[in-house]
Amino acid sequence: MRFRDLNLSEEMLSAIEEMGYTEPSPIQEKAIPVLMEGRDVIGRSNTGTGKTAAFGIPAVERMSRDGRGVEVLILCPTRELAMQACGEIRKFSKHMPWIKPAAVYGGASIEKQITELKRGANIIIGTPGRVMDHIGRKTLRLESLKEVILDEADEMLNMGFREDIEEILKNVPEERQTVLFSATMPPAILAITKKFQKDPVMVKIENKTGTVESIEQYYYDVPAGRKTDALSLLLMFWEPKLSMVFCNTKRMVDELAEELCTRGFKAAALHGDMKQAQRTQVMGGFKGGRISILIATDVAARGIDVEGVDMVFNYDLPQDMEYYIHRIGRTGRAGKAGAAHTLISGKKQFYDLRDIMRFTKAEITKGELPSAKDVSEKRLDRLCAEIKSAAQGEVVPDAQKLLERLEADGISARDAAIALIGEKIGESITQIPEIKREKFSSERYNAKVAKVVISVGRRQKIAPNYILGALVDATGMPGKAFGKIDIFDSHTTVEVPDEDKEHVIETMNDGKINGNKVTVRLFDGKREQRRENRKPFVKKDNRKKKF
Ligand code: ADP
Ligand code: MG
Predict the structure, then answer these.
(1) Which among 42, 454, 436, 47 is positioned nearest to 230, based on CA atoms?
(2) Residue 102 and which of 57, 241, 407, 493 are 20 to 30 A apart at CA?
(3) Which atom of ligand 1 is nearest to the CA of 88?
(4) Which ligand is nearest to the CA of 16?
(5) 453 CA from centroid of ligand 1 (Å)
(6) Euclidean distance between the first and final Cα of the chain, in Å?
(7) In the predicted model, what is the mean pLDDT of residues 379-387?
(8) Do domains 210-370 and 447-533 have the same CATH topology?
């Protein structure tokens, strides 16, 4: 496919040519046509796949030539990304004098930005905090807005911009296009999608590394001794049709199977100590749907191929890192979406999990366990759907007769329905465990983790293992000590143990990575600065009025 086949204007085509792009990347090929139609889009693909052009080109193309006011707002997580995206948009619109992009971000003079906004900027690319700030000052007005784009939405949420984003989305015209790009799809993103997008089209580029990418992966930090309750909550909330739970020992498999059966789940154990006939029976039950939860050891599960496993749970972390891939590979088969949920308890398991993430390059997002209330609400939702679909089905003649008889006895259809629904609800009530969130939810371990910023990134062709190698080399610390490594265009962030942050900075600063001299500093300062910058307008009660 060529850009020419995408129905773009001549001005755009020549700008693209001047940029040296010869053909659209896969995400561009898929997203541009849908976006040109004006549809809402959820886009998923890895970094470096050309997302900026995927949303930037249609945004520019759809701008009106004689319009007034801001028509497009692009939100990015950082100043660097906002500047970069603005630069690209400028290039795409090089031959379109009616397009005036402007970048607004914290840590820079607001006066200059105000001047630019006043000069009639009509595509705004900015960080949520500063955008809120400008809205508050009325230097940015969004009445004419036609499109909002959330770039790297998951990253924005990670950085604590959720409230700002929601506030902005609540206060832009209802009639608009809403586009969201994200590398991962944690529940918080899905919530935003549900709340603010209309019938969005999913545009996804599968990563070549295989199945793992199509599987949503979460981990849960569970208080000691509460893993069975945590698992029960997840099973009750999601009600997967077929799921597999992995434990490391046969004994644990047996115990867990028994406990889950007691709690009313259709669960069964599978491990090497069982006789062949027993195993065959269990597998038959699982394939036939009589058993919906299969609890197994890695060895017993090897070679099992069941279609349609929609969830995998790691009750225990796998002892061998490669097992993680094997385990989660049980789900998400044949292009279907799957999910893997991993339960961890305690610091050691948290570090082991980080090792797995690094080894497998898996994106495992921290998840929140559903509360008992979440579970019961979800059940009511399901019951409601069930009743709705039954109501659309054929009427059983006897049911009709019975209802008439009841009505003759003075029981209305409504009374009958309420009684029956009540009974249904009663049936589904079982003991729902509750795990308190306050104590255990937030970053207990992360709290002891600091982040440092290293002044090299993608542009210097840096890969995570270079960074890790240099860190181990310079600090003398074990590779295990370092957490998530995120590589951006011109910088990289690394999680380091809080107590070692000074040591890391001292030994790494002014060193070299892959031939590049680097500076290293603490990440925190920037956050603080960002907070500083939007201080005047973050007061909640003022916010609404300022729009
Ligand atoms: P992402 O947002 O997916 O991480 P970017 O939009 O930043 O990716 O693009 C990554 C790089 O690829 C940029 O340097 C961009 O200019 C370049 N690029 C994007 N699309 C094309 C294309 N169709 N042909 C060649 N280079 C491209
Ligand atoms: Mg990008």
Answers:
(1) 436
(2) 493
(3) 16
(4) 1
(5) 24
(6) 44
(7) 88
(8) no
The residue whose CA is least distant from atom 25 of ligand 1 is: 21
Report the pocket of ligand 1 as residue ranges, CB < 6 Å: 21, 24-25, 28, 47-53
pLDDT tier at 421 (50, 70, 90 boundaries)? confident
328 CA distance to ligand 2 middle (Å): 28
- Minimum CA distance residue for ligand 1 atom 22: 21
pTM exceeding 0.85: no
Q: How far away, in angstroms, is 81 Cα from ligand 2 center?
A: 7
Q: Tell me the fold of 210-370.
A: Rossmann fold (3.40.50)
pLDDT value at residue 55 = 97
For domain 3-204, the question of CATH label 3.40.50.300 is answered with yes
Q: How far is the CA of 184 from the centre of ligand 2 (A)?
A: 13
Mean pLDDT of all residues belonging to the chain: 86
SS3 348: helix
- pLDDT by residue (tens digit) across 429-458? 567 888 876 544 434 555 578 899 999 988
Q: Looking at ligand 1, which atom is closest to the CA of residue 489?
A: 7
**CA–CA gap between residue 161 and residue 317 (Å, rounded):** 32
Ligand 1 atom at shortest distance from the alpha carbon of 27: 3
Q: With cut-offs at 50, 70 and 90, classify the pLDDT of residue 210.
A: very low
Ligand 1 pocket, mutate which of 2, 23, 25 (most atoms under 8 A from CB): 25
Instruction: Select from 1, 18, 113, 94 the least CA-distant residue to 56.
Output: 94
Q: Look up tokens 């919906």; give the residue.
A: 292
Model confidence at 546, pLDDT cuts 50, 70, 90, reads: very low
- When pLDDT is averaged across residues 344-362 and rounded to a whole number, the result is 82
On the CB side of 188, how many CA atoms lie within 13 Å of its CA? 21
DSSP letter (8 states) at residue 345 = -
